[in-house]
């Protein structure tokens, strides 16, 4: 089954949260219900230039991360009855929105997320040596 875009939410920090239903029918009337939340965070070169550690590897980081970095959160439930699929998805959606939307909307979320991804990339590059 192709991913179905359920909603787009404009966040206070000018990012867009997209929620997808990526559920898969498994056996008979059973489903693996998958909810995926994605935010495309534009890459900010200024973050690299703030740190000497990052700026020395600027080109490698940019090449590895690209123009944008995707935040992704997945929730799933397996062996869900066909009659319960929609309500289970709605529960997952509501729980994610109730527990996470405020955090994702914070003004500092994009910077903190990108810094985390830059650190992960730096660590990966160091392990290659």
TrEMBL record:
Name of the protein in its database record: Uncharacterized protein
UniProt lineage: Bacteria, Pseudomonadati, Thermodesulfobacteriota, Desulfobacteria, Desulfobacterales
């Amino acid at each position: 089954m192709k991913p179905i875009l359920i909603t787009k939410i404009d966040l206070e920090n000018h990012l867009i949260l997209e929620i997808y239903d990526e559920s898969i029918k498994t056996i008979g009337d059973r489903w693996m219900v998958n909810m995926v939340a994605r935010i495309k965070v534009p890459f900010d070169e200024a973050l690299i230039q703030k740190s000497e550690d990052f700026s020395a590897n600027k080109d490698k980081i940019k090449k590895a991360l690209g123009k944008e970095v995707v935040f992704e959160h997945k929730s799933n439930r397996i062996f869900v009855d066909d009659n319960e699929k929609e309500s289970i998805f709605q529960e997952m959606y509501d729980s994610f929105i109730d527990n996470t939307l405020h955090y994702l909307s914070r003004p500092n979320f994009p910077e903190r997320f990108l810094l985390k991804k830059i650190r992960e990339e730096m660590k990966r590059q160091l392990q290659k040596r």
